[in-house]
Design brief:
Blueprint lengths: L8 H33 L3 H11 L2 H17 L6 H15 L5 H16 L31 E4 L7 H10 L10 H16 L9 E5 L3 E3 L2 E10 L2 E11 L5 E3 L3 E2 H8 L14 H11 L5 H7 L3 H17 L6 E2 L8 E5 L5 E6 L11 H13 L10 E9 L5 H10 L4 E4 L8 E11 L2 E2 H11 L4 H23 L2 E2 L8 E3 L5 E3 L6 E2 L4 E2 L8 H5 L11 E2 L4 H5 L3 H11 L5 H12 L6 E5 L15 E3 L7
Parallel strand pairs: 19-20, 21-22
Antiparallel strand pairs: 1-2, 2-4, 3-4, 4-5, 5-6, 5-7, 8-9, 9-10, 10-13, 11-13, 12-13, 14-16, 15-18, 16-17
Helix pairs in contact: 1-2, 1-3, 1-4, 1-5, 3-5, 6-7, 10-11, 14-15, 15-18
């Protein structure tokens, strides 16, 4: 309902306080992103990881601070709905010339839903849709940094000079080991990719003005344009063995960029004044990637959640299939359901967790928060956490409703809370993740045809190789997955194996990896029970085999590639490395993308592997 008059003087003051709260948040967010450059230049890797973790808390902290101010100064929760409608209109006015209006809208929603105890998008007091356009939004003030810069080599012979100028203009406060050498190698790769194309008058390189920082790397992101061809491009910049900068690899095409911006990796730090412009540019490189996931990758997870939920509501309006219990083996801790036509799954913690699982609801939530803040290394799926989510009751299958009543009755409410005549199932708390093919189902499909179809045998081998690599990548980031059963891993569209069951994960350095003691007596040897003492964090890697390697073909492949995972010494060795402060690199690209022969003195034990046989 649109207010006829703006006659509440406190409404404008509340709107100003809300905008001040948002602006303060984004100043903190931007300052941390700007400091990422200095941490990269000084090789402050622990500081970089710490900043990535702590930044996640900024938003909720500022929302709480803003709510406190509004209550203290304006008794916000006691204001009438008429006043709040006027607050929203004043706030829209404050966003007209704002450089982050979409983020400011989400901040408004976060604050007002908590003050007014509104839980759904279908009301008059929050932004259901964007009120201010971000199209072609840019800071046009004199001296403002452009969103991207364009470079015009003229022809391929002049490419080295253009690239040299481009990297020098980054103004990184540390020396390149040999920029001329690296630029030559990069130019050769670009020429290879452009071979066969006729260069047109518009031949150019467009690169985003800010570098993308994550862990030990800084990434230049852009595209090459000639004629109607646009080739996505990303160049990782790392510190080499001499602690000087090197151009480490050349990434080309949408698939390479998808791997770099994967939902299974930690968020980037990017100093950007107009996030929507960065998202628009990145979307031109990765048109299949939802905007929500791009905002997530940039560390703007609340905006990602907002866009995701809008996408979901839009999908519900234009689909008719039913929510169902997700395929696969049911979990002991989580109840999982999905909508077949929508590429995500919904997970909620059961009210009564199976007694065989020594974990509580608060502990499970803490594990998911650990994953959110940790370097996921490309091997742990990101999650979006929601509270009080309403679904149309008519879209639930009978089986799913029965399962919810049986497993999580305390977390669901079925009512017409909005009074619009539509019954809804309101779930108090859930997680949402990208849907993957459960690895156990993938392997079963491969095994069923492995004897008659060589490509399925190859796909099975690749998946098992990827499974072991996934565990080793987690180990590299100080994560022990706990429950390593195949069903807790999934296969992505691109063929990567990713872990997604977090209720038993631990920091690797908190575990005690042991060999199974030798029996001292015949009675101990013949005993069907564990006769030796086992501490709460004791892990016996040699016992993994019976649970994982029952099928001879699976065992053969696993033992050829990953037998070391069954040895306690493997795990203890990585514990020692981590305790000594040695961070392994887990690169988001294949070895074939490297510019240098060999590893340039870097820790390159783990790489992305081609997945084209994981059909």
């Amino acid at each position: 309902m649109f207010p006829q008059r703006l006659d509440a003087p406190e409404a404008y003051a509340i709107a100003q306080a809300l905008m001040h709260g948002y602006n303060q948040h984004y100043r903190m967010f931007s300052a941390e992103a700007a400091r990422a450059k200095q941490r990269f230049e000084t090789l402050d890797w622990p500081g970089q990881q710490r900043a990535q973790r702590e930044r996640i808390e900024f938003y909720d902290r500022q929302v709480r601070a803003c709510i406190q101010r509004l209550e203290e100064e304006f008794a916000a929760s006691l204001q009438s709905m008429a006043v709040w409608q006027q607050v929203k209109l004043h706030y829209i006015g404050l966003m007209v010339d704002h450089l982050q209006p979409e983020l400011a809208e989400t901040f408004f929603n976060s604050v007002t839903t908590k003050i007014l105890h509104r839980t759904h998008f279908q009301n008059d007091f929050i932004f259901v849709r964007a009120a201010v356009s971000t199209e072609y939004l840019e800071n046009t003030a004199p001296g403002a940094v452009p969103i991207y810069r364009a470079y015009y080599p003229g022809n391929l012979a002049q490419l080295e000079g253009t690239l040299q100028s481009l990297f020098e203009q980054l103004q990184l406060q540390c020396r390149f080991e040999d920029l001329q050498r690296d630029v030559h190698l990069l130019a050769e790769r670009i020429r290879e990719r452009l071979a066969g194309l006729t260069l047109r008058a518009n031949f150019q390189l467009q690169v985003l003005s800010s570098l993308f920082y994550r862990n030990k790397g800084a990434y230049l992101v852009g595209k090459i344009i000639t004629g109607y061809t646009e080739l996505p491009l990303a160049i990782p910049i790392l510190h080499g063995e001499k602690e000087q900068l090197i151009l480490h690899a050349a990434l080309f095409g949408e698939d390479d960029l998808h791997a770099l911006f994967s939902f299974a990796r930690a968020y980037f730090m990017v100093d950007m004044e107009v996030p929507s412009a960065y998202v628009s540019f990145l979307r031109s490189l990765m048109p299949r990637k939802p905007k929500a996931e791009i905002y997530n990758a940039l560390g703007l997870a609340k905006q990602g959640k907002t866009l995701f939920y809008r996408d979901f509501l839009h999908h519900l309006r234009h689909s008719s299939d039913q929510l169902r219990i997700a395929p696969g083996i049911k979990g002991l801790v989580m109840l999982v359901f999905d909508l077949p036509s929508f590429p995500y799954v919904f997970k909620l913690i059961k009210d009564r967790i199976a007694s065989s699982k020594d974990v509580s609801r608060p502990q499970v939530k803490a594990k998911y928060q650990l994953v959110k803040k940790h370097d996921r290394g490309g091997r742990m799926a990101d999650t979006m956490e929601y509270s009080l989510v309403a679904f149309p009751k008519e879209r639930f299958s009978d089986e799913l409703l029965a399962e919810l009543h049986a497993q999580a009755p305390e977390q669901i409410e079925i009512s017409d809370r909005d009074g619009d005549g539509q019954m809804e199932v309101i779930i108090s708390h859930l997680y949402i993740e990208r849907r993957l093919v459960p690895l156990n189902l993938f392997l079963m499909e491969c095994l069923a045809e492995a004897d008659t179809k060589p490509e399925r045998r190859a796909a099975m081998e690749r998946a098992i190789l990827e499974y072991g690599n996934a565990i080793k990548d987690l180990v590299a980031t100080n994560i022990f997955p706990g429950d390593m059963l195949w069903k807790n891993f999934g296969v992505t569209r691109g063929g990567k194996v990713v872990f997604y069951d977090y209720d038993e994960i631990e920091y690797l350095t908190d575990c005690n990896f042991r060999e199974v003691p030798q029996p001292r007596t015949e009675e101990e040897e013949m005993s069907g029970d564990i006769w030796y003492s086992v501490g709460p964090r004791d892990v016996f890697p040699e016992t993994f085999g019976p649970f994982l390697l029952g099928h001879p073909a699976v065992r053969d492949i696993f033992m050829r590639h990953h037998a070391d995972l069954l040895e306690a010494e493997f795990w203890r060795g990585h514990q020692s490395r981590i305790r000594d402060g040695h961070f392994l690199d887990v690169f988001p690209y294949e070895r074939s993308r490297f510019l240098h022969a060999g590893d340039a003195g870097l820790d390159t034990q783990r790489f992305e592997i081609p997945a084209n046989s994981l059909a």
